[in-house]
Amino acid sequence: MTAKNMTRAAFFVLTALADQPRHGYGILRETEELSGGEVQLRVGTLYGVLDRLTADGLIVLDREEVQQGRLRRYYRLTDDGVAALDAEAERMAAGAGAAKRRIAEGRRVRPAAEGPAGLEPPTAPGLAGGYA
Amino acid sequence: MTTLLEARYRTVLRLLPAYYRREREEEMVETYVGDLDRDTQDQSRPTLGEVASIAALAVRSRLGAAGAPRPYVLLGSGARLFALAAVLLLAASAVVEPILQLTWSLTRGGAQRRLFLSEFTGHGPLADTVAVAQWVLPLGWTAAYFGLLYGRRRLARTGVLVAALPTLWPLVSSLTGATPIVEPAFVVTLALLAWLPALALCAAHHRDAPAARLPAGTPGVVFMAACVVTGASLVLLPAAADLVWGPANCFVVGALGWLLWTVRRGEPVAPGGALALAVLGLLLLAVRVSAVYPWLGLPEAAGYLGGDLVQAAALALLIVVLAVAGCRELAAR
In this structure, are residues A27 and A46 in contact, taking their beta carbons and an 8 Å threshold? Predict the structure, then answer.
């Protein structure tokens, strides 16, 4: 998976694993928190993403634990995973920077083009027949 | 002790193939139940969204997901080739037939032109709109074909779903009582010929699937070749032409080429390809038989029947050969 075709879900899963290995439920909670509640992965979706990231070599199984009789698998980023996440973050930051610059330029140009309020040039005859 | 929610969730997980459940079931249950307390677990059930996500995962894990066992890899590869081959046939037909019809209507004088235009006018707004849509929407097959081969999967999915819509119109029209279905078997098999490839494309060419590619040639050249075969079969034997005549002839030529190439290489051109083509051939044969059946025994339909019965025989023969080749491939693995 390259930065160009990384999905939003994959990006947040990689981000959730950037600081430490996490298990499935931990990744679900972390992605929700990191995205401000915007990304709420279903379990089926999460495991589709984990399968894909594992196949692409971006994450690996870190360790297994048994908690209250249930299996927990912890995943961590590989070096390729860190590089892919870094590249995607750079790409997003560059896009966000370009958008902010354009917005700032737009704000600077717009007031000058519109001119001061109330001083529009006359376009029609006034009540007295001449230009007001 | 197992809670009600866990038991229900495990039931939903049965949608997944056995190899996937063996690997992931315990982990997925732990992830799903998370830190819910026991009372909540005993009073709740998996949400529809959760069930839908498992169903989607079940389809993907059966159609060649990463790390899937060989039978599923074969199934995924076959489903992708089935969708691609069917979309190619329908795309060529969607372009060639309107062009030939337009050429015929516009070069044969005013009467033919008026007859052609009368199909789209004077039947009321709904009927006229449907007539235009049935002419234009099948071009979605062409958009889907090129979208699929150039990595635009969303365009491909939208294209096939839009293109398959007109085949539903006779069924909808019949259900609403507007028009009775004259040949129900033909209408249903024609709808299947459109919808099975459309659904196969949506399911098998998912985001994680390998990129779609042709066994040989570039997308443009293969499309042109399909158009030439479709067009030639319509021009050379117009008496036998119906909705499935062109695509079926194109299939016969393509499948023969596939078999010869496989024999020459000494190994399958694409995993699961022979069985995929056999299924597509079977679908075309079903449409062919349902189209011909009402005309059997009518002396005035002899011109139409001759060519179509020969085509049906060719399809049946190819299906048998492809099925044998496909079974040998399965046994060899």
Answer: yes
